[in-house]
Specification:
With 241 residues, this protein is of the alpha+beta class. 49% of the residues lie in helices and 28% in strands. Strand 8 and strand 9 form a beta hairpin.
Amino acid sequence: MGAAQILLVILSAAVIVAAVVILRSRKRVRVNSWERTAVYIDGVFERLLEPGVHWLWKGRGYLMVSPISLDQRVHQVRADVLSSERMPLRLTATVLFRIENAEISLREPVQPLIDLAVQAALTRLAGETPLETLLAQPPETAEAFSARLTDTVGAARIERVEITAVTLPPEVRRLMSEVERARLEGLAALERARGEQASLRSLANAARLLKDNPELAQLRLLKTAENAKSTTIVIGDDRSR
């Protein structure tokens, strides 16, 4: 093997080693269309990657990537509030939102801001609304609640929000159960009284009819005798005694 061939082999090996080193020093990152990816070097935010395939150098420090979803998210918020009658209760709201600015969301976490805004809106709504209305959940209550929230909270846009649960304290639930039970018992007693009145009215009409038409009593007696075949019925006075 000549000197030129030896030199060529050495150069080829050097190229291969350099290629391996370069490949090991790079990181392939794929960013989907529904997300963005934050790049951190030694724990410090460097930049935000747009959708596509990116190659990152790993030699400058500890490299870390963190994807940020821009899809619609569901978040529940609970708030202990007082109704307009100063009645304590807990309201649960479900929020649908999307992150609009991924970079701002890194500096200002979205969910704590949404919690604060929704809890404030629930507190204001409950303070102006009777308990009965909150329990019934009419459409105007949902509209009033949505009107108390801004469309944008921090880096997120709120797309829909609804009150999904109204929870009363145990003692209040017990009182309302007793009230409802008393109401139902009153309705049942009223229905029984109506039934008894109808029965008495029917008996009174029958007695009046028999009094005005004595032959109806005999027809009724004959009908009873026809139905009761094994029974002996004596019509008239027993004068043999």
